[in-house]
Amino acid sequence: MKIEKTLQSKRHGVDFENLKFGERFSDHMASCEYRDDKWQTPEIIPFGNISVSPAMCCFHYGQMVFEGLKAFYAGDRINIFRPEKYHERHNRSCKRLCIPYMDQELFLSVIKALVTLDIDWVPRGSGTSLYIRPFVFATENFLGVKVSDTYRFMVITSPVGAYYKEGLNPVKLITSGAYTRAARGGLGEVKTPANYAASLFPAEEAKNKGYTQVLWLDGIEDKFIEEVGTMNICFVINDILITPSLDGTILPGITRDSVIFLAKEWGIKIEERPISIYEVIDASKKGTLQEVFGTGTAAVISPVGEIRHKDEIIMVNNGRIGELSQKFYDEITGIQYGKLKDKYGWTMSILL
Ligand SMILES: *Cc1c(COP(=O)(O)O)cnc(C)c1O
Fold this sequence. Notes:
Elements: E1 2-3, E2 28-35, E3 38-39, E4 43-46, H1 57-61, E5 64-66, E6 69-73, E7 77-81, H2 83-96, H3 104-117, E8 129-138, E9 151-160, E10 171-175, H4 193-208, E11 213-217, E12 225-228, E13 232-237, E14 240-243, H5 254-265, E15 270-272, H6 277-286, E16 289-296, E17 300-309, E18 312-315, H7 323-336, E19 347-351
Parallel strand pairs: 1-4, 10-11, 10-17, 14-15
Antiparallel strand pairs: 2-3, 2-4, 2-9, 5-8, 6-7, 6-8, 7-19, 8-9, 11-12, 13-14, 13-16, 16-17, 17-18
Pyridoxal-5'-phosphate binds near residues 251, 295, 296 and 297.
């Protein structure tokens, strides 16, 4: 790996006490090119603009994939959470977008080298972390629609505070109404920018109505719950943890996976199955809807306090975080910040 260090760190200009999400970037970035049918030697260079042709095909047809994982300050070490899982998903996404496979050693070593070099950028305050954004894009310059022969994989990192302004306070969701996120066989289970492009307009409408995010319903029957804009979703009904099954339209979240794993460890009854919005409304009316929460790398666990579907408004747990939501949050963040023993081998550590 080639490493070119910056001559002037920008760290002193960053207010680490008031970090937002993804607005500041560490001193370096990683870059690795794919050409002649193979990934070339990766390099770490000062963070900065890159020069590309306006004819670069990913601008026009969106052949791109991204990931999002985090590194946490844990006293005597920095913990990167489940990087192997993110690598696995990265390659699944790449396959669907005809982007070449990257082996685990390359993916992990680039991330580890970058975080090690910018180790002072891992914030130390409670709830803070270094967000790691790997992404890959097609770099051939042409306007025909075809699979690119060349690619560039990059990693940038950003010190972040708590993801939601509300913190662990419950968010308000509104169902997708006239819009759909994905249909079976499409890109729903792939971490690719197109899914976010499609979600912006509905998300703006939701915000204008006073809601935090859109709760996506399925594209065929318009009643089965899929996920939230940037999170998977879980319900606790009658002491059973229910989350929509991965049927091809839902992003397979690593946090979702961690929650399911822990639920099984703890002997909580769990069902991965289709769940309709009407089942949730019904449970709410019967008083059996106990908790609703989103799961995602950015927020870990995000309690849902209110769901609106057409004219129905479901209030959840009096707008407070539920017991189980809190337990998942405490366990996952406990492992991430090294406060709890990493029983499951979920962290890749860099010793300080
Ligand atoms: C990344 C993402 C998630 C959450 O996945 P995590 O691996 O838990 O961060 C959920 N939904 C969508 C659409 C996503 O892009």
